[in-house]
Amino acid sequence: MTGAPTPLLEPREGIPPVIADAAALAEVVAAFAAGSGPVAVDAERASGYRYGQRAYLVQLRREGAGTALIDPVACPDLSDLGAALSGVEWDLHAATQDLPCLREIGMVPDVLFDTELAGRLAGFPRVGLGAMVESVLGFVLEKGHSAVDWSTRPLPEPWLRYAALDVELLVDLRDALEKELDRQGKLEWAHQEFDAIASAPPAEPRKDPWRRTSGMHKVRRRRQLAVVRELWETRDRIAQRRDVSPGKVLSDAAIVEAAIALPSTVHALSALNGFGHRTGRRQLEQWQAAVDRARALPDTALPMPGQPVTGPPPPRAWADKDPAAAARLSAARAGVSALAERLSMPQENLISPDTVRRVCWEPPAATDVAAALAGYGARPWQIELVTPVLAAALSAKSA
User: What GO MF terms are annotated (predicted)?
Assistant: First the structure.
């Protein structure tokens, strides 16, 4: 791209009406089924405002069909649209962020092209949609509405314009990135990555999600951990019932503060940060009840510190636990880093850091490195490139 970028201010056909009833949705399904080429797909969530990660607007664009903006609250079942696009390539930016909420409403791609991941593999330093459209296509997208509350109804016109523009150039970006990946000899690698995303099963619910409370490193004792768990689970039930973000019900910082202080009365709780004068008496009593439940638990029912470790220990502990493994990991990281630099891509896209740790902690025989990588989910292109690097690292001796 040369010259100053051009602001992209309006969708080519203007802002389409929001599809919010069955008859209008049926027309969209027919139009997109009759379209040609790949389909650009995007979804807007209300993270930070609503409970969960559901979609509150779905945007699509396809040659011959134009752009559609669909309200998945009014039209919660888009499986007919998903079926109409079966076998069609879906172009998404950061696909793993949108696929879970699309799956909930019946939209699951068979084939996809992820423009963010393509940018990473091609070595672009900035891979946000706006940055990619500007550097690759020479247009500036207005990004001021990315963090708004998309559950708002009716959606303001400037938000709808922003949403329509997000899919306006997505297929053009995909085409340009395909050419660049092909030029670099990485197109087959990208297709393997996209196939892995499309075929991945839905993520399992996270075990003990309360352990991810921000500030948990300050919580040392098991009784305090029990307070975090009780407050987190109480907050989650309230947030789900009210359909608001959990952070709007009670902050993580307040949960940790109460866990450390272990208040025995509502008065003591109300003196803590996060439970001040704006918290009503009834609310304070429900939080204190959660603290009291944790205080009353027998020692045998208290959560254990840390999560059960299923893989290697933290790398910082390797030097003490197994110096030879630490030496292998150091050599492997250096080799992977050098290879990623030569290939102009982030190390984590070349091979998962967790995979490297697992291979170095429990090293397979030199002839079995490729099989070990495949067992950890590495794609064929990764296995081909990384196996020689890791095989050399596994022969590293501790000092």
Answer: 3'-5' exonuclease activity; nucleic acid binding; nucleotide binding
Residues 380 and 242 in one domain: no
- CATH number at 289 reads 1.10.150.80
Backbone region of residue 94 per phi and psi (left: phi > 0; alpha: psi in -120 to 50; beta: other values): left
Task: Spell out where 97-242 has E strands.
Answer: 111-114, 139-141
Q: Give the E-state strand segments of the chain in sequence order.
A: 6-8, 18-19, 36-45, 55-63, 66-70, 89-92, 111-114, 139-141
C-beta of residue 228 within 8 angstroms of C-beta of residue 219: yes
Together in a domain, 100 and 32: yes
Contact (CB, 8 A) for 33 and 53: no
In the three-class reduction of DSSP (H, G, I as helix; E, B as strand; rest coil), residue 78 is classed as: coil
Residues 220 and 76 in one domain: no
- Per residue in 246-294, pLDDT (tens digit) is 999 999 999 999 999 999 999 999 999 989 777 778 899 999 999 999 9
**Residue 394 identity:** L
| Cα three-residue angle 87-97-104, rounded to 5 degrees | 65
Q: Which domain holds residue 243?
A: 209-301
Establish whether the linkage from the previous residue to 154 is cis, with ω within 30° of 0.
Answer: yes
DSSP string, 223-249: HHHHHHHHHHHHHHHHHHHHTS-HHHH
> Is 1 within a domain?
no
Amino acid occupying residue 219: V
Distance (Å) of CA 175 to CA 44, 61, 113: 24, 15, 10
139 strand-pairing partners:
6
Q: How confident is the model over 297-315, as pLDDT tens digits?
A: 999 999 998 766 678 998 9
pTM beyond 0.70: the answer is yes
Q: What is the dihedral of CA 144, 150, 154, 156, to 10 degrees?
A: 0
Please say which residue of 273, 301, 329 terminates a domain.
Answer: 301
